[in-house]
Amino acid sequence: MDEEELEQPSSKINVGSFFERVDSVDRVANRALSQSSSNLGIINNQKLIIQSLSVSIEAMETKIRDIANYIIVENKLEKDLKSISRFRGKSATTYADDNKFEWFAENFSLYELGKTELVDPKFIEFLNEKVL
């Protein structure tokens, strides 16, 4: 035999080399299956996180919408209150003449206490038309 024959592997398949190849393929397949199972677990965890985030986002959207609606109503009431002309010196106390907040607080308190004879008629009109 010359050197070339010794260096070249035999292309014939024998029983030993066949089963060695099958074992090698089996190990690769098992690693691939294990990795796939691991990836599937990760994907399922990510799916749960995404679903949870979606629910949280929907809840935040609802709260933001509620806040926006509240602000709209609040601004409208503020605008309506500004349209009421206050009569300085005609309030039940001098606190109501300080600013619109004191005026509102005083009239609201008197109204809730049932002392409507002391409440500014414009305030009662406002309550009946815009609030009640």
Strand share of the residues?
under 5%
Report mean pLDDT, rounded to a whole number: 82
Oligomeric state: single chain
> In terms of structural class, how would the helical and strand content be classed?
mainly alpha
Query: What string gives the helices and strands in order?
Result: HHHH
Residue share in helix: over 70%
Q: What is the count of helical runs? A: 4
Count of all domains: 2
Number of strand segments? 0
Low-confidence stretches: none
Taking Cα atoms only, what radius of gyration do you get, to the nearest Å?
Answer: 42 Å
The description of the largest β-sheet is: none
| Amino-to-carboxy terminus distance | 112 Å
The general outline is rod-shaped
Task: Characterize this entry briefly.
This protein has 132 residues and is mostly helical. 73% of the residues lie in helices and 0% in strands. The protein has four helices and no strands.
List keywords for this structure.
73% helix, 0% strand, 132 residues, single chain, 2 domains, mainly alpha, 4 helices
